Amino acid sequence: MVRHNRLFWKIFFWFWLSMVSVMVSLTFALSVLVDPADILPERRALFRELETVGRVLERLPGDRFEALDTLTSWHASRGFRNTLYVFDGAGRPLGVREPPGSLRDFFRETRDATEYRMAVRDGQVLLGPYRLEREGAEYLAYLVKSKPTHMLHKLWRLISHEPSVFLVLLAVSGALCFILTAYLVAPIRELRAAVRRINEGQLDTAVSAAVVSRRDEIGQLGQDFNRMAGRLNRLVSAQQRLLRDVSHELRSPLTRMSIALGLARRKGAGGAEGEHERIEQEISRLDGLIGQILQWSRLNDGGAGAGAGTLELSGLLAQLVDDADFEARAAGKRVRLTQSETCRIDAAEPVLASALENIVRNGIRHAPAAGEVEVRQRVAGSRAVIEVRDCGPGVPEEHLASIFEPFFRIPEPSVSAPAPNGSGLGLAIAKRAVEMCGGTVRAENAAPGLRVVVMLPLSAKASAP
Ligand SMILES: Nc1ncnc2c1ncn2[C@@H]1O[C@H](COP(=O)(O)OP(=O)(O)OP(=O)(O)O)[C@@H](O)[C@H]1O
Ligand SMILES: [Mg+2]
């Protein structure tokens, strides 16, 4: 148990130890270094009071001064809250009130002093002596204040005189440290449990809102953890889906090949031309598919080198459209670059070129017979916008976002049935490549046809040659 809670006890004991040692050293320093009399805030007021009282005493009519029994009540009636004591030259107190023992000691220490002294003894503030002369005799007046008011001083007295108070402080600080430690360690424990769950394969794990909503580093750690777990979960499920789809995609041509092979065997060496052709077709289809899968996985590894170097976009497009147009002519269609503005963007040329090629090829494939694919490029703000539009059947609205998912093809009955040889990876590869260049891609129906819009951030080094 203790082993598992090591961090808790470490934090707890260190906090507590430092709290206790601060308390002890503060008390010690106070008792050794600070004379309580020096830190009393009422110091000045007491001095003034003694002066005033002393002067009044000097001028008091003789008989009243002799009747010092009433001195104390006289002093009190003047609105002074402290007690006045007067000693005669021989050290005898005047009046009926007995001076406390501490004042007697203080009197002995200070009877020859030439200026005022102040001391704190037995919880009382002692001040004096004020020397006054009456009819040739010398008297010494002292003031005693019963309770010093300074907080620090009270604390010091409490700690140094009452060990039980120290024990209470110890317990209170211990409780505070316990709460603080629990506050710090609880979320760490929760994070640890979450890490363990992920380790056990529960990828949909997240830490609770109580941790995430904290406004401190632990809260930030919780948020980062949830983001990481979410991404991990998405990545792993995407990989699993991809693996399933890839296996499925690879199996179909293989099945067709083995059927063709069986037929060819039965026909013998002579009459199997058709089957051989079929097998050759399927092999090249498999080859293409594997090539695309490799390209897709390279892009997802982030190792495709996107963002390496800058390129001039209109030049790239001109070359690309030229090649695509050459291909399209074979099917009686055209690809045209209708507008293009010079601009530079940060991207690796092969990655971006193949992404755009995939989009343009789709256009050619889906354009009607003798139709045209229009490629337009302009600069809008800090972005380059490339639009590829064909006049084909377009894509049903509900599939507009899905066509960018790997292996997605429009279901059969639709007007824009998939190309017989399409793998459904083309747009997924294009989207990933564009995103790696910091851009976005979306598709919209342009009635007629489909418009694919690619936006890419302009290079920060746009003016460079
Ligand atoms: N211009 C378009 N017009 C109509 N439908 C389109 C267009 N472009 C794509 N699609 C639809 O989106 C699906 C996904 O396109 P994608 O390019 O990813 O795959 P593909 O063209 O079938 O195969 P590949 O590009 O890998 O050879 C296509 O199967 C097609 O149904
Ligand atoms: Mg395609």
TrEMBL record:
SUPFAM superfamilies from the UniProt entry: ATPase domain of HSP90 chaperone/DNA topoisomerase II/histidine kinase (SSF55874), HAMP domain-like (SSF158472), Homodimeric domain of signal transducing histidine kinase (SSF47384)
Enzyme class: transferase
Molecular function (Gene Ontology), one example: ATP binding
Domain of life assignment: Bacteria
Keyword Protease: no
Principal place of residence: membrane
Domain HAMP: 182-237
Protein localization: Cell membrane
Keywords associated with the record: ATP-binding, Cell membrane, Kinase, Membrane, Nucleotide-binding, Phosphoprotein, Transferase, Transmembrane, Transmembrane helix
EC numbers for this chain: 2.7.13.3
Family annotation (PANTHER family): SENSOR PROTEIN CREC, SENSOR PROTEIN RSTB
Protein name: histidine kinase
Species of provenance: Methylococcus capsulatus (strain ATCC 33009 / NCIMB 11132 / Bath)
